Amino acid sequence: MLRQALRRFSQKLVRRPTLKEPVAENDPRRSLSTLNLVALGVGSTVGVGVYVLVGEVAASQAGPSIVICFLAAGLSSMLAALCYAEISARVPHSGSAYLYSHVTIGELWAFITGWNFILSYVAGTAIVIQAGTLAFDILLGNQNSHTLHESITQQVPRVLVEHPNFFVVSLVYFLIELQTLRFSQSFMVTKVITSVKLLVLGFVIISGFIKGDLHNWKLTEKDFLKAGLNGTSTLGHMGSGGFAPFGFKGILRGAAACFYAFLGFDNIVTRVEEARNPQRSIPMSIVISLFICFSLYFGVSVALTLMVPYYQFQRGSTLPEAFLHIGWAPAYYVVAFGFLCSLLANVLGFMVPICQVIYKMAQDDFLFPALARVQTGTCTPLMANVIFGIIAPIMAFFFGLTDLLDLSSIGILLTHSLVAIFVLICRYQPERRNWGNEAEMQKENGPAAERLTLQGLLFPCSPTPTPLSGWVVYVCSSLLALLLTLLCLVLAQWSVLLSGDPVWISVVVVLLVLIIGITGVIWRQPQSSSPLPCKVPALPLLPLLSIFVNVYLMMQMTGGTWAQFSVWMLIGFAVYLAYGIQYSLFFFSAFGALTPYWICHLQVFSPS
């Protein structure tokens, strides 16, 4: 009795939806070219993060070595982008990592992915709200915050005085309402805003090479003393000077925070059913847009740290303030205008995907059905917008900028790791014309027709994937994810390892042997030979490298961040176990459920 109950429970955790055929290639709704998709990816990714993130991370975590932080975050994001590119070509349906996890691994991991996606984008929007306050202060000559501080300090709690985001919250609500309207030229507006952002950031990069001073990367104790910072020239809240004033630990910590800057490139996969030749244009646009974003971030971080000594950055310092330091006052307002454009683009860029995911999870009955209510006439998810509009401002009021950056980054890193696992599993599965077919799922989950032997494990007889080989890869991938997490936990204590403790070194060696052995088992299994325009090379090594880097960077987060993340996940599991697991739909057509929402928005966001 108990055994049967546990079996039914485990089957619920891995059940998957059925997908219908994608939109036909000649469908008139397929109107987005590769250039349109690149503009969408760059516009969604390059935003206010670069205006506040560089100063925030350089001031307290990395100093000039922030360029290495962006390099590490960019390389890890590129690995994730390759995984997104392959899985979008393999599952050509509009969606996100949530949909991909649902059709490849099952509903439990789909819920975890979607719940983390919501956290990342809500925290990202809260960052935009806080950054928006800074943008308005810059354009108004810092009068906004001064007036509010003087007028309400005695009447309201201190936390509200320190985060006066009232005007920007009103703007967010206006943009939410704006989303419900129909704009035939909306995609053109997106491209114009993206062009403005690129021009402004290009100006910042050129200015840095003109007015920059290489000495700012080689600061010493004498420079601290000359600046009147005696007493902080040793290791402290300003570091020790030089290129990496906070050491290797600061670089790792900064790289984890810099992941927020790459939030948004995965929005491209939400437009699969609007793209011409999506199996080619989607992977290409993902890689191109991410490369452009990384180049901009790298250039801006180099320019800013050359123009301004890192110790002069304060918490909340913004990119325009660097031009006051070098005496270019007019440029201060030019860059502030680009800051404001990024604010508008980011809020709009975050609203659409997060509302899609909330709507989709409600349609799948993971979340309460009220969240799937659609506004009559515009087909916009009404309750999803309302929930989004409530949670994001609350987080902006009561969380600090660093906490929000860490929460957003930890959600992104976990989602990227899951996508890498999806690719690893999909490549070794038997060919399925229709992902999630129940009969094939039962066949896959019960490989009784084949017998598992040690020889068959290392030397499979079939040159093509079988249900048994797919099941082996499924189990091995799960074990590798666990072992890589344990390895990262141990390596996070690198100071103990460097001391030569034989116990910790033995643990690392055992974990490495197990990881190499299980990786070898996966490598020996037959891969799918189906032709795809984009495949992750060097399987299974690159997906595993992506998982390792992402998890290791997650280990750099503070205990407070992990506590906040744990609370969020506990709330999610409570919702899933109390409601989602009982009501989620087994035979669910992903495209069919998205049709009412997508038909309307294909008209709203398609270029004319």
From TrEMBL:
UniProt cross-references to InterPro entries, sorted A to Z: AA/rel_permease1 (IPR002293), CAT_C (IPR029485)
UniProt keyword annotations, A-Z: Amino-acid transport, Glycoprotein, Membrane, Transmembrane, Transmembrane helix, Transport
Protein's membrane topology: Multi-pass membrane protein
TM regions (residue ranges): 35-53, 65-87, 108-136, 156-176, 188-210, 246-265, 286-311, 331-359, 380-401, 407-426, 471-497, 503-524, 536-555, 561-579
Pfam families per record: AA_permease_2, AA_permease_C
GO CC terms: endomembrane system; plasma membrane
Boundaries of every Cationic amino acid transporter C-terminal domain copy: 535-584
Listed Gene3D superfamilies: Amino acid/polyamine transporter I (1.20.1740.10)
Subcellular localization: Endomembrane system
GO-annotated molecular function: amino acid transmembrane transporter activity
Entry similarity comment: Belongs to the amino acid-polyamine-organocation (APC) superfamily. Cationic amino acid transporter (CAT) (TC 2.A.3.3) family.
Name of protein: Cationic amino acid transporter C-terminal domain-containing protein
Annotated source species: Lynx canadensis
